[in-house]
Amino acid sequence: MNGAFDLTGKVALVTGANTGIGQGIAVALAQAGADVALVARRDPAETKKLVEEAGVRAHVVMADLSSIEPCERIVEDVVAALGRIDILVNNAGIIRRTDALDFSEEDWDAVMEVNLKVLFFLSQSVARHMTGWASQSGERGKIINIASMLTFQGGIRVPSYTASKSGVGGLTKLMANEWALKGINTNAIAPGYIATNNTEALQADETRNRQILERIPEGRWGDPADIGGAAVFLASRASDYVQGHILAVDGGWLAR
Ligand code: NAP
């Protein structure tokens, strides 16, 4: 691949890379030429195989992102194995569904920790590494946060998820504000309704499934591969003047 979207020689780090959107993004970045570090708490063997089939290097880092403890170690491990980190995709995330009246502190803390706190502190660790080379070399680091429709909307029965993903929108802008002049672009992708483990309960609920499909102009659930093109754009030189943007990839959901 040549031109502004080419990622040949770049190194990407993708969290939650064993399934779903993380796998779709890792494969798309690999097909655009990037070596990919796969961070997961379960062996991402399938993603590793798909990345290597694209003709680039895959490096697995096993880590549980339910606390910030592994953040520094992940960066050191990836830099030692692949040389440096050009692209960070903060994709790992969880969701807990319960009526707001009954929602527990445990479900609040668990979701906020993975979706928001670890996203920030891993970004901080990677940004400290990127600022070591980015502004002097003229090359730019790229941070891509995975937001949600609930970065824009309230949602139902998912209070900690809505709080965390609204927070991701705010942090994306803060990071852009602070790190743009240090050679880093920070943006987010807000996936619409994508068929993954995260949305299994919605897909299985006949009424919610029908209501969701009726509102999507594209008339179908998204596939993890649908997110890949946006990730390649935000990881590449083509997006060097894009900062703090939350790019919806939603089959038109928000247009409705
Ligand atoms: P998914 O298949 O469940 O993927 C979530 C990934 O995060 C999995 O790889 C999961 O690993 C990983 N993860 C969760 N907790 C972790 C932890 N403590 N340590 C390490 N890894 C952890 O669902 P998905 O839909 O692809 O979700 C990916 C991202 O997209 C999430 O941030 C989600 O909020 C966001 N999103 C999804 C949709 C959608 O419609 N699907 C829409 C908007 C945003 P395990 O497999 O080990 O659990």
UniProtKB/TrEMBL annotation:
- Oxidoreductase among the record's keywords? yes
Which InterPro entries does this chain map to? Answer: 2-deoxy-D-gluc_3_DH (IPR011286), NAD(P)-bd_dom_sf (IPR036291), Sc_DH/Rdtase_CS (IPR020904), SDR_fam (IPR002347)
Arranged from A to Z, the UniProt key words for this protein are:
Oxidoreductase
- Taxonomy, superkingdom: Bacteria
Gene3D superfamilies recorded: NAD(P)-binding Rossmann-like Domain
Q: Provide the top EC class.
A: oxidoreductase
**What's one GO MF term for it?**
2-deoxy-D-gluconate 3-dehydrogenase activity
Q: Quote the PROSITE patterns the UniProt record gives.
A: ADH_SHORT
In short, the EC number is 1.1.1.127
Instruction: Please verify whether the record's keywords include Phosphoprotein.
Output: no
Give the protein family. Answer: Belongs to the short-chain dehydrogenases/reductases (SDR) family.
UniProt-recorded name of the protein: 2-dehydro-3-deoxy-D-gluconate 5-dehydrogenase KduD
In its UniProt entry, the species of origin is given as Pontixanthobacter aquaemixtae
Upper lineage = Bacteria, Pseudomonadati, Pseudomonadota, Alphaproteobacteria, Sphingomonadales
Q: Which gene encodes it?
A: kduD
